[in-house]
Structure formats: structure tokens, C-alpha cells
Amino acid sequence: MKILMATSEFSPLGSTGDLGDQVHILAAELKRLGHDISIVMPFYRSIREGNYDIRSTGVEFQINLGGKKASTDIVETTGPEQIQVFLVRRDEYFDRSGIYGGNSRAYEDNAERFIFFSKAIVELARRLSPAPELIHSHDWPTALLPVFVRDRQLPFRTVLTIHNLEHQGSFWSFDFALTGLPGYYFGPQGVEFYGRLNFLKGGILYADAVTLPGEAALFEAFTPQHGFGLDAVLQENRYRTYGIPHGVDYSQTNPPLDILIGRRYKSEANNDKASYRQALFDQLELEKKPTGIALALPIEPQDEAAFSSIRPVLDLVLTADTGLFVTGKADEKDLPEIIVAERKYPTRFAYRPDVNRNLRQLTLAGADVVLLPSSLGFRGTNALAAMRYGTLPIVRMRGGVHQLVSDYDPVSDSGCGFVYSNPSPMALWDSIRRAIQVYQQPEEWTRLVHRAQAVDLSWAESAKAFSKLYANLLRHRQAGAA
After folding, report:
1. Do 168 and 198 touch, CB atoms closer than 8 A?
2. Which domain holds residue 433?
3. 53, 317, 359, 463: least CB-packed within 10 angstroms?
């Protein structure tokens, strides 16, 4: 398949971090599967000033922005893994110090910049020979592209991947004129959202397929708590919405002990897990190491229910020869119980609200169990990183959990964690007791740990899922044409 990836970021050419890295890895894995992959991104100053071989394509055209004519020329370079990268050049928009803003402020003309970029991608795709069969957009900066493709009835299939649902490309209504779309697009069945232009909403409505980072993230996006206002829009279009886990870069999520602690740290433990555990207790400055199970409770932003889920059974947990380590800021209403727990169980309980990344990862590595009673996070990274370290997840059953964690079943000798259904604190406590019972059977616990460590959600597997989605979309197009 010939696929054009439309993105505002692509590492290492231009990136603010996560998005650029993920698009890069996905494109590389798709190329390894035999697909013809090209990238199109803006020609940023960082690329101009970098050590890249920039070549002219000879392609030039003008874009209509609400009556204003904006010209561009397309240049190209070769990215990592010999991937062809098209660069949309217009210095007025992209020859700047930052991608989205500078001095901690977004550029005031971001709507104009990325409307121009999306329209330029459409024109480029029309001129490529052979033409791409599918255009894959990433996040809000290119989310209007499916709208333009559908409006002009172009023969490209479109996929929109939402990496970060919180950032939607929301701008004041007057920017809609820049799109050149008919007025009826600025309505409930178009790009209007509460009186504003919303790029991401338009992409959700008009892309042939929308993907989020796994089914757990998809089902959480259907809720008001994690949908950031677009939950109803996603639910209405769920028949075109898919949860494809984003691959995990285990070198980043699971760094070794010497990275987390420092090369000078010396451990007396005789295996990796014991070393992580010993280092964790040393970092937390706990006086006595419990011989029983060690539990980690990571609290993510906007996850107020994480500690509340365990608060009613906190005494049961901490009197069962366990240690509990909470990282991340708990809700204000939970702080009195946390203060009491720190005083009652100074050798078993630790709370670190302003934890750095290394200590958070060390907690996942050094604990025996990670508690995820409310949210798995947008990509389920805590569960995946913990399992690779041999730390077993305890999760509450909800939509999409099965894609990441399967329940321990001693009869069939299967499962890689502990899953419970009833959203009550006692159900969580029952799962903790289950884990304690298995922990007291070293051989059984070791088999369970090995199954968890064998769970592979690398980008190679993610690329296969995207490839299957592409093939289904193109097959349906061919069937419709016949």
C-alpha cells in the first residue's frame, strides 16, 4: 500500500517529544512490513538549520485561505530508515523558533498555519504519482484534512489517529472562513463545537477511521471524565472508531537500574527484581522492608478516584504485611487519610506527590504489584511498563482492559494479572488478597510473572494492526466502486 503520513511532528526532524517519536516508529515499522511510506510535515526552521539534504521537488502551488492566496513550494529530504519526507515550505508560517508557540505561549495564528498545512497536503497528494491510496493524519494539526478530502470527493481513504485528546485545535469561529468550506460545515454535524472551530471534531466526523491508543483509551474517551468534551461525538461515531494499542518503546518505559538510580549504586540483591526492590526502599527511606508483597499506586493527572478506591480498605492493606507506595498527587479530600497512614505505618507506607520520572519508574520496577483501580491512563503505559519489570497489575474490569491485562486463572494456567469487576473497595481488597495468596506460592508466582513479562506490545505489533485497518478500508472502497 502507498501511504502518506500527515503530521506536524516527525523525529528527529521536528518534534516536541512524544508525537514525533511515535509517528517515526510507526512509519519505520510499516515500511518494514513492505508498505510504501512517505511523510509530509512543515518545513520548520529546525530542519532548515539541521544537517539535512534538502532537495527541490519542483512542485509549487497556491492555497486559498478565505480569499487570501498563500503560495508554497514542496521540498523533500530523506529521514531515518530511508523514509521519504515531503516538507511544506512557507516561511511566514513555519520559519519560527517553535512548532506551536514560543515563550510559553501558543502562536496566535495557529489556526491559519495548520489550515494552510492541511490544504497543502491535499494539493500535494493530488499531484503525487503514483498517488497515495490512504492519508493518515495525526492529532489536531492535521485533523481537518479528512474534511477537505471528503468535501472535494477525492479518492483517498483517510485515517485520523488521536494521540492526545486534550489538545483539540479549538479556535474562534472567525477562523472558519480560512477553510473555504461551505457554511453548513460550521454546525453540529461539522467543525463547529460550542460556537468555536474544532479541528479534532471535524476529523472524527469525516475520517474513514479514527484510532485511539488501545481499547482501554477508547472506552475511557467515551466518558465525560476522560473525553474532554468530545465523548458524545466519539460515541456517536464509534462504528468508525478503533482502539489500536500504541507500541511501547521499552527502552524508555523500562530503563535499567543504573539509569534509574545511578551507576554508583551497589545492590546486595542476587537478581534484578530484588535489586529494584532494595533500591526502591532505599530511595523511599523506609526503615523496615516488609517480607510480604509490595504495592505501587501511581496516580495520573485527572485521576482523582485512584486513591479514593483504596482509602476505605487502607488499614486492611497495611496490616497484611505489605508495603504501599503512592506516587503522584492525590485529591485534596484524601490528604487527611494519607497523613494518618504515614504516621501509623511509617515503615510500610510512602506518599510522594511530586515524584520525578525515575522514582515513578523505580516504583513500578521495585513493587510486586501495581494497583490500577480507576484509570489505566491514555496508553496503559503504567501497566505495560510494570509487566515488563515483572510487576503484576491489579485492574478493575472496564471496556478494553482485556487488550492489555488478562485475569489469572490457576485452572488453565493463564493470565498476567488480577482483574475484578465490582467497583467497590472490598472488591479491590479481595484482588489484593488473591495476589498475596499467589505470592506465598513462589513457583506459581514466578510462572505468572513470566507470562506478564512475555506480553509484547511493541510497535511491530501495532504496525500490523494499522496495516490490517488500512487493508480493510481499501477493500471496502474497492467493493463500493464495483
Report:
1. yes
2. 251-456
3. 53
- Joined together, the cell numbers standing for residue 67 give 480569499
**H/E run at residue 394:** strand 392-396
Cβ distance 86 to 40 under 8 Å? Answer: yes
Give the rounded percent of residues in the chain with a pLDDT score beyond 90: 71
Closest CA to 84 of 21, 10, 163, 16: 10
Query: What is the helix, strand, coil percentage profile of the chain, to 5?
Result: 45, 20, 35
Task: Note the maximum CA span of the chain.
Answer: 73
Residue 146 CA to residue 136 CA, distance in Å, equals: 9
Residue 64 DSSP label = E
Higher pLDDT, 28 or 304: 28
Cell numbers representing residue 442 in the block: 513462589
Residue 477's CB is within 10 A of a number of other CB atoms, namely: 16
Whole-prediction pTM: 0.85
pLDDT per residue over 181-215, tens digit each? 999 999 999 999 999 999 999 999 999 999 999 99
DSSP code at position 331: P
Report DSSP state, residue 85. E
The tally of CA atoms less than 13 A away on the side-chain side of residue 174 is 1
Residue burial 442-464, b: 16+ Cβ < 10 Å; e: rest: eeebeebbebbeebebebeebbe
3-state secondary structure of 15: coil
Pair 390, 468 in one domain = no
Task: Please state, in angstroms and rounded to a whole number, the distance separating the CA atoms of residues 10 and 27.
Answer: 10
Sorted by sequence, the CB contacts under 8 Å of residue 455 that are 6+ apart come out as 384, 387, 388, 404, 416
- Strand (E) or helix (H) holding 78: strand 68-78
Fill in the amino acid letter for 194. Answer: Y
- 185 in Cβ contact with 179 (< 8 Å): yes
Number of domains present in the structure of the chain? 2
On whether both 40 and 144 belong to a single domain, the answer is yes
Same domain flag for 164 and 128: yes
Residues 265 and 228 in one domain: no
Q: Which of 260, 271, 215, 263 minimizes the C-alpha distance to 241?
A: 215
The number of beta carbons lying within 10 Å of the beta carbon of residue 84 is: 15
Q: Is the dihedral of CA 22, 25, 30, 33 positive or negative?
A: negative
d(CA 285, CA 295): 16
The string of DSSP codes covering 89-102 is E-HHHH-SSSSSEE
User: If you average pLDDT over residues 327-332, what whole number do you get?
Assistant: 90
Same domain, 367 and 451: yes
Say if residue 147 is in the same domain as residue 107.
yes
For residues 394 and 324, give the distance between their C-alpha atoms in angstroms, rounded to a whole number. 13
Q: What is the CATH number of the domain that holds 339?
A: 3.40.50.2000
